[in-house]
Write a structure and sequence with these properties.
There is one protein chain. This protein has about 260 residues and is of the alpha/beta class. The protein has one domain (about 5-260): 3-Layer(aba) Sandwich (Rossmann fold). Helix content is about 35%, strand content about 15%. It is globular and about 50 Å long. The N and C termini lie far apart (about 35 Å). GO terms for molecular function: hydrolase activity.
Length: about 260
């Protein structure tokens, strides 16, 4: 199985970045590229099976997606590597670290999913502050409820940035994505297994993230004995686009720890 990837090559440390569900490597580069700028990394951005330009040639389960990513890593990069992900990509990244610790020497998890079932997540019990009048006016109708729940930094400029990222990259396979998200195999089989990941880990969450929350992520820190946890105010599920300067500072700290 071959994933479509943007891999510039180079001799710096490799960081492989995994995307949010239904998004592409172009969106992932827009999210993480500014955070890694100037760090001398070999940044690799991949499209997951059925996402972007990668065809859906594996069964629609998270374990099969994870296995496909690991197969690609075994073939294309020399491990262990740095692994970064957002949302579903972070969920997969944590799973890779559990199942294939030989591949990973550092984890950056941004707004990570911890439990995949929506009704199992502990979400914020307070609504985000009101945004300025008309802040969602430019969002398509079908995305307004999602963005209202997802965003903590509620401005039209943030909405425009998020929409541009969501609309970038290849088309993906909508049928595969629906089957993956709606099937019994959406959760990794070892989702609840308690395994210590003894590498530098940074977990960044949004205080107003109404999609995956921030409490489950704090509880999961017991799995990361070398972990740093940050919850960011005025940020939600699209934190890289809502608070890029702060994410850059936290990413640079993480990189420093991986080199220490």
């Amino acid at each position: 199985m071959t994933l479509v990837a943007d891999d510039p090559g180079g001799t710096g440390p490799v960081v492989v970045c995994l995307p949010m569900f239904s998004t592409t490597r172009a969106a992932t580069a827009a999210a993480f590229g500014p955070a890694f700028a100037g760090a001398g990394l070999r940044e690799v951005y991949v499209d997951l099976p059925g996402h972007g330009d990668t065809p859906a040639t594996c069964p629609p389960t998270s374990q099969d997606v994870l296995d496909t990513v690991c197969e690609w890593l075994d073939q294309h990069v020399d491990g262990p590597i740095l692994l970064a992900g957002a949302s579903y990509g972070a969920y997969l990244g944590a799973g890779i670290a559990r199942q294939r610790p030989d591949l990973v020497r550092g984890l950056l998890l941004v707004c990570p999913g911890v439990t995949i079932a929506r009704d199992s997540r502990q979400l914020p019990d307070r609504t985000p502050p009101e945004g300025p009048t008309g802040w969602l006016d430019d969002a398509p109708d079908e995305l307004r409820a999602h963005l209202d729940a997802a965003l903590g930094h509620r401005t039209s400029a943030v909405v425009a940035t998020v929409l541009a990222a969501l609309g970038s990259g290849g088309p993906g396979d909508a049928t595969f994505q629906r089957e993956l998200q709606g099937g019994t195999g959406y959760a990794l089989p070892d989702e609840t297994v308690e395994v210590d990941i003894d590498v530098p880990v940074t977990v960044v969450t949004g205080r107003q993230d109404g999609i995956v929350g921030y409490v489950d992520q704090f509880r999961a820190m017991r799995r990361y004995p070398r972990g740093t946890y940050t919850v960011v105010d005025a940020a939600g599920h699209y934190l890289p686009f809502e608070q890029p300067t702060l994410l850059r500072a936290l990413a640079q700290d993480w990189l420093g720890r991986t080199r220490g």
